[in-house]
């Protein structure tokens, strides 16, 4: 009985440690893992290669910032930096938002992010913009709708907790 109880306690501690090891949804640690996932997603690396070439404001990268409105304001934003490397859109940075002029800024509630990450885009994907606030070129976003959807789906693929960062 004692051995079985010890095993249950150790198993419970292991599960608790695993849960604690997961980053909070849209925390800087989450952004780093999201960046790594980006580089393993052909729809993003290949589909946004041309987009990544067209940097602005003298920057050497494109940036996308995003945050959860129910966990603070823009001061809690995270971002990814994307460069065109060898003909692919490669994520070189994922972490705390540092770019004062991101190419895209997106924000909404945790519940709406979860809907988007689950593929609940609305009619022909056009409902995406009604579920979030979006700053940046909507024409550019619409032109890249396939990769944009892959970006949103990847949000749910990084293991995380729902705690606010």
CATH fold type: Nonspecific Lipid-transfer Protein, Chain A
Number of beta-strand segments:
5
SS-based structural class?
A: alpha+beta
Strand content: 15-25%
How far is the N terminus from the C terminus? Answer: 41 Å
Topology pattern, helix = H, strand = E: HHHHEEEEHHEHH
Provide the descriptors you would attach to this structure in a database record:
single chain, 165 residues, alpha+beta, Nonspecific Lipid-transfer Protein, Chain A, 5-stranded mixed beta sheet, 8 helices, 5 strands, 42% helix, globular
Compact description:
Helices cover 42% and strands 19% of the residues. The chain has 165 residues and is of the alpha+beta class. It has a single domain, classed as SCP2 sterol-binding domain (Nonspecific Lipid-transfer Protein, Chain A), CATH 3.30.1050.
Description of the structure:
- It is a single chain.
- The protein has 165 residues and is an alpha+beta fold.
- It has one domain: Nonspecific Lipid-transfer Protein, Chain A (2-Layer Sandwich), CATH 3.30.1050.
- Helices cover 42% and strands 19% of the residues.
- The chain contains 8 helices and 5 strands; from the N terminus they run H-H-H-H-E-E-E-E-H-H-E-H-H.
- It has helices spanning 2-21, 28-38, 42-45, 49-53, 110-117, 128-131, 138-143, 145-155, and strands spanning 62-68, 78-85, 88-96, 104-108, 133-135.
- It has a 5-stranded mixed sheet.
- Strand 2 (78-85) and strand 3 form a beta hairpin.
- Helix 5 (110-117) crosses helix 8 (145-155).
- The radius of gyration is 18 Å and the shape is globular.
- 28% of the residues are buried.
- Mean pLDDT is 88; it is low at 5-18.
């Amino acid at each position: 009985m004692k051995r079985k109880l010890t095993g249950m306690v150790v198993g419970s501690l292991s599960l608790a440690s695993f849960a604690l090891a997961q980053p909070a949804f849209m925390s800087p640690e989450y952004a780093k893992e999201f960046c790594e996932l980006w580089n393993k997603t052909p729809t993003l690396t290949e589909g946004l290669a041309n987009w990544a070439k067209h940097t602005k404001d003298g920057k050497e990268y494109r940036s996308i910032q995003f945050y959860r409105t129910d966990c603070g304001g823009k001061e809690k934003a995270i971002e990814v930096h994307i460069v065109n490397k060898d003909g692919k859109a490669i994520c070189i940075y994922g972490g705390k938002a540092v770019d004062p002029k991101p190419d895209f800024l997106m924000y909404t509630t945790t519940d709406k992010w979860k809907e988007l990450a689950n593929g609940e885009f609305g009619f022909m994907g056009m409902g995406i913009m009604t579920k979030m606030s979006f700053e940046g070129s909507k024409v550019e976003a619409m032109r890249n709708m396939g990769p944009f959807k892959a970006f949103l789906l990847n949000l749910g693929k990084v293991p995380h907790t729902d705690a606010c960062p």
